[in-house]
Amino acid sequence: xxxxxxxxxxxSAIPTKTRNLSAQVLxxxxxxxxxxxxxxxxxHLKRSSLKVNRINHIFIxxxxxxxxxxxxxxxxxxxxxxxxxEMKIFGPPGLDKLIFNQLELTKxxxxxxxxxxxxxxxxxxxxxxxxxxxISSFPVKHRVPCWGFLFRExxxxxxxxxxxAKQHEIPIKMFNKIKNEGADFTDKTGVTHKNEDITTKPxxxxxxxYTADTVYNPEMIQYFQGVDLLYHEAxxxxxxxxEAKEKFHSTAKQAAGIARDANVxxxxxxxxxxxxxxxNPLLTEARSIFPNTIAAEDGMTCKVNRxx
Amino acid sequence: xxxxxxxxxxxSAIPTKTRNLSAQVLxxxxxxxxxxxxxxxxxHLKRSSLKVNRINHIFIxxxxxxxxxxxxxxxxxxxxxxxxxEMKIFGPPGLDKLIFNQLELTKxxxxxxxxxxxxxxxxxxxxxxxxxxxISSFPVKHRVPCWGFLFRExxxxxxxxxxxAKQHEIPIKMFNKIKNEGADFTDKTGVTHKNEDITTKPxxxxxxxYTADTVYNPEMIQYFQGVDLLYHEAxxxxxxxxEAKEKFHSTAKQAAGIARDANVxxxxxxxxxxxxxxxNPLLTEARSIFPNTIAAEDGMTCKVNRxx
Lengths: 308, 308
Description:
Two copies of one chain form a homodimer.
Chain A: E1 3-9, E2 23-28, E3 31-37, H1 41-46, E4 55-59, H2 71-80, E5 87-91, H3 95-105, E6 114-118, E7 125-129, E8 133-140, E9 146-153, E10 159-160, H4 162-167, H5 172-181, E11 185-186, E12 192-193, H6 195-198, E13 199-200, E14 207-210, H7 221-224, E15 229-233, H8 241-246, H9 252-261, E16 266-270, H10 280-289, E17 293-295, E18 301-303
Parallel strand pairs in A: 3-4, 4-5, 5-6, 14-15, 15-16, 16-17
Antiparallel strand pairs in A: 1-2, 1-18, 2-3, 7-8, 8-9, 9-14, 10-13, 11-12
């Protein structure tokens, strides 16, 4: 099952010659989830290999323009392309008004429904629960209400060993009990086979967390402890640690501290201030604390790999 | 004096892999004028060699998103970059409300003033009058109120021949009369020199017209008769002439007919429907009517040359 992230924009606040504004797409088994939607996101989607009509859920972390000004353009283009399917949008209170106001003032009706869900400022909340994965939001600390998002695969059932299933006639009801409940199996001759002998362990469920914009805040670790991949903003380097705090952003090193303390598998840093033409110093700072760190680049796709 | 156009986006309605949404910058003697501002325009400005802080005037032709959804992002980035100078914005009624609403809902105050001027739906109107050029708007016919813009250099004064100015002491007051009013000059010895003998003709003033989105409409020729460069939309080819009319757009051939009948110097076609992967057939159709036609490409800069 595919579980991979494509990063469309990695610049904070303003775009640069090489970095677009915040937007990412998580592909879970060919369902696409758009996370933030800075100005111009529809262009970068168009120029990627991602299929826009597979996006049915959009998550907006906060109401700073570099994270959502591209939403109205994307929705309008979806309308022009004949979209009929409902679009679920999860975002801060007021986002619905912003979008509907613009649609009204431009007389730009949509033929598909927009279904807005306001995020909860006080606690983590489940947003989407499908057969194979769950998506939730958690509050982070920024200058305005802001949320991170957590994407978790569900635990898969155990697999019955093929040669055992072939040798024995296992009733369907029993089949499910063995896979999902760890039941043992007694065959026709009265012999009982222990579950651990006749099944194999499924692969561990994978998980991805996106912190959006946040000041260094160990309190939020509870929400994504042990995830396989963590995207943590790293707007500044250690040279600007004071500015990071004042502006409710993080340094690369702080991001790495969070990754280490949350015991994540891999750290992806991004949302770099336009002042850093070369982000290698930030990467070096982060790796000094958490070696398995990579720096986000526009257009990169990375698989969410299971923690070793 | 520089008088040149940079095209930032040439796709209609939705962006394609190679064409952005409508936006252009006219450079008149290092003053930059932004004409339309589709989603993502701030990125394309950033990636051009144009200096964003030299833009003090923005012209929005109509309230279809592909022509203005990038405006709020551009203004917000200008704020982040420390802009203090007033920005003059010329656009349809309601544009001010759209922008102020978004600034209010996102608590995104600006430290520079936005000065909105509503365009006149009934007649051409002068918008900007500076020492060396004049900018005006004219109504065109589209599904919603829509305007074109005309940029004209002012007529330059005649030049007094250098050797004559050296030979004779010409009082400043007389100097200006000779240059601007065609006055003759009587020298100290009482000899009168005819204006045409002592001056040379200045270069002809140049002009550029932008039609925005419009159905084929010969009535608008009055507004830009004889311009040096005309940008006329050519959303469709002749294969879609019916669709062009229904959607209040033009074909490339119709654009060329307007260019011919308006006796312009050069025609630049753009705003191509995303259905045309190759726009050469449209260019061929236009050239069959008006040979001096070029097709707009994203990022191209073309000098506005005087008509031959």
